[in-house]
Amino acid sequence: MDLKNKKILVTGGAGFLGGHIVKKLLERGVPKENIFTPRSFELDLRKRADCQKAVNDRDVVIHAAALTGNVELHKSRSAEIFYNNLIMGVELIEAARQAGVQKFITIGSATEYPDNIRLPFREDDLWMGPLEPIHAPYTVAKKMLLVNAQAYRKQYGFNAVHILLTNMYGPSEHEDGGPIPALIKRIGEARKTGETTVRIWGTGRATRDFLYVGDAVEGICLVTEKYDKSEPINLGSGFEISIKELAEIIARLMNFDGKLDFDPTKPEGQPRRVLDTARAEKELNFKAITDFEEGLKQTIKWHGY
């Protein structure tokens, strides 16, 4: 699919991921007037009528809008997170089908994988066990959009694709979005105030696979252009690092020589997470290219440190 002549809806276009998707589409030659990024105060995507307005006369939908954030948000607003993410996706995909949209991309999450399955996480293992409980309302809602996409492809021949996206990081992600901006904020505040200790949730032993947002949006565009199969597809770096190691790198890059104090009484989510990237490499020739420390430097710089 050549995107240059397509009219594209990007939901969540004012957010961290959505904003970078729009930038990447422009770099790929999609005219600005062909990219539609309605804000939530303009169109409420939980309502069918607003979804119909959003997809009207669109060729492609990249559904990046989501209610998500850090562990605290997922614990305190679990019902909203489940309802909003499920209903937005369900209503939007039905409106897109009815409108004759050519392709629908759902941005799912690596949290859809069960706890404690073999590493790295392979797409074929997605249904091999129960989910991590703290994020379950979010991950079940996202996983149901994969089921939704597959059912619509089977019955209607609707070209809907589901991406399993790992933890992202990069410029413009705010501190409530994930561990990297949260750590940057805490260490930055400690430097400003002269504090010698930074408190961090969890043991620090949990591991994650972090993907720079520039690489992530390149992968999303490649999926939109080239991938037309019912099976979900991982987008990750394939690089596993513990939260303790991550915090130590950020502290070093920010010239903080104080103590990193991990609190094991606080939740830290899934014990280990790293994605197998073989399918993306085979189908898209996609591989993350941003050096991890260079990506962190760019992120720290954006936060003003």
Secondary-structure topology with pairs:
Elements: E1 8-11, H1 16-27, E2 35-36, H2 48-55, E3 60-63, H3 71-76, H4 78-99, E4 103-109, H5 136-156, E5 160-165, E6 167-169, H6 179-193, E7 197-201, E8 207-212, H7 213-226, E9 233-235, E10 240-242, H8 243-253, E11 259-263, H9 278-284, H10 292-302
Parallel strand pairs: 1-2, 1-3, 3-4, 4-5, 5-9, 6-8, 7-11
Antiparallel strand pairs: 8-10
Helix pairs in contact: 1-7, 2-4, 4-5, 6-8
3D structure, described in words:
The protein has 305 residues and is α/β, with parallel strands linked by helices. The chain has a single domain, classed as Rossmann fold. Helix content is 42%, strand content 16%. The chain has 10 helices and 11 strands. The chain has helices at residues 16-27, 48-55, 71-76, 78-99, 136-156, 179-193, 213-226, 243-253, 278-284, 292-302; strands at 8-11, 35-36, 60-63, 103-109, 160-165, 167-169, 197-201, 207-212, 233-235, 240-242, 259-263. The strands form 3 sheets. A 6-stranded parallel sheet has the order 2-1-3-4-5-9, with helices on both faces. A 3-stranded mixed sheet has the order 6-8-10. The longest helix has 22 residues, at 78-99. The mean pLDDT is 96.
